[in-house]
Amino acid sequence: MKLDADIKNQLAQYLELMEGDVLLKVSTGSDSVSEEMTDLVNELASMSSRITVEQASLPRTPSFSVNRPGEDTGITFAGVPLGHEFTSLVLALLQVSGRAPKAEQSVIDRIKGIKGEFQFETYVSLSCHNCPDVVQALNMMSVLNPNITHTMIDGAAFKSEVESKEIMAVPTVHLNGEFFESGRMTVDDILAKLGTSDASEFEDKEPFEVLVVGGGPAGASAAIYSARKGIRTGIVAERFGGQVNDTLGIENFISVKYTEGPKLAASLEEHAKEYNIDIMKAQRVKRLEKKDLIEVELENGAVLKSKTVIVSTGARWRNLGVPGEAEFKNKGVAYCPHCDGPLFAGKHVAVIGGGNSGIEAAIDLAGVAAHVTVFEFMPELKADSVLQDRLNSLPNTTVIKNAQVKEITGTNKVDGIDYIERETGTTQHVELQGVFVQIGLVPNTDWLEGTVERTRMGEIIVDNHGATTLPGVFAAGDCTNSPYKQIIISMGSGATAALGAFDYMIRQ
């Protein structure tokens, strides 16, 4: 295997940043993946005098570990980390060589303070754009804490292991041999799940003038606009970037021809950090109450106070709400075709939903699956005609319209779908191995029950200043009754809410 010339030139520049020697211990066999891995590590060694390679016996073959000479740092790649995981490899080389990870000191301190033995394993697909965040976070934790180890496992290279553990979604993380979590996670998310955060971190915080709840495009915009007014601003969020992190290609963000969700999310956070904004990540809000000040309670028990609050908690994938969906989540039921599609190579899968997102998912999946069946509740698809034309041109797709999904069937994993032909009322069954749900969004506003007025769909009702029915509380983005759920519209509504909150304060 030879690296692309452009990639090799970029890699050479990164390898010059290595601060110490690195030993790659390689366990390979006679298979094609082993050959590719051998070529990769040898090419790395040829590009830097700081990298040496030696044969070893590791728990998985093919795999290689990244170590300091004489010291096991606990980072292993089982499979060839190319595609989206190539950056994970580069960062591992740099960090193991002694280059400090780019993380806030408070995060580094929390990682170093973790006690106990933690053996993490992350099952990935090299085409998954969410997987590298998890891999890089756990690799960094392994570098910083000798009690933590991490192995990245390419599902395509270890199919039998993935199938035996019935892993049908990536990234999937196991801790000490047991399921830990599935889906995109940042280091803050992992630390929160490990229980390293407590309410004492927030005891000494002075009241804010504007507290933004949610870190997506609307929340970031609201926080930046508020901070630019010179007022005390805070932002509390489960993850910065929100659902944008789960979006692959973005082509309608005006002035930017193309970008990807994780890149935009990182840019939002980077921009916010240019201002005096108190950013509190990996925190979930559970209650809001108006007293002399507005109080926002976090799930860890901490209470933040502010003169005004801007709710920008966004939305999440809408569930079908049928038997089998919850039971088989990550066991054949999935929501991200880009991430999980490769796990269904050569299999029959279904896409639920005939809108743009559903048909785009079906087209994407048709490239890897043996067959894709689209189920649409209405008599006609809602997707743009150009997408329908593309779908109809593919030989391995079927569209079933006027169909009500009744149940997702299976035992330990999905084996089919029962649906009702709405025209006749008869129930039909289709045998398949995967179901991708693409039926829109539901706002993340359950925690506001009885606090502000919402639509029957749960969307927060706001006026043209972004104000809700509770004085001092504003809202923006996909959690509101804005008719269009778009990144650029969310950003504008965040700015509107921030200006509305400022106007509210100066008039009180």
UniProtKB/TrEMBL annotation:
Keywords: Disulfide bond, FAD, Flavoprotein, NAD, Oxidoreductase, Redox-active center. CDD domains: AhpF_NTD_C (cd03026), AhpF_NTD_N (cd02974). Residues 209-487 form the FAD/NAD(P)-binding domain. Pfam families: Pyr_redox_2 (PF07992), Thioredoxin_3 (PF13192). InterPro entries: AhpF_NTD_C (IPR044141), AhpF_NTD_N (IPR044142), Alkyl_hydroperoxide_Rdtase_suF (IPR012081), FAD/NAD-bd_sf (IPR036188), FAD/NAD-binding_dom (IPR023753), Ferredoxin-NADP_redctase_2 (IPR050097), Pyr_nucl-diS_OxRdtase_2_AS (IPR008255), Thioredoxin-like_fold (IPR012336). Residues 124-191 form the Thioredoxin-like fold domain. Its cofactor is FAD. PROSITE patterns: GLUTAREDOXIN_2, PYRIDINE_REDOX_2. Belongs to the class-II pyridine nucleotide-disulfide oxidoreductase family. Homodimer. This is Alkyl hydroperoxide reductase subunit F. The lineage of its organism: Bacteria, Bacillati, Bacillota, Bacilli, Bacillales.
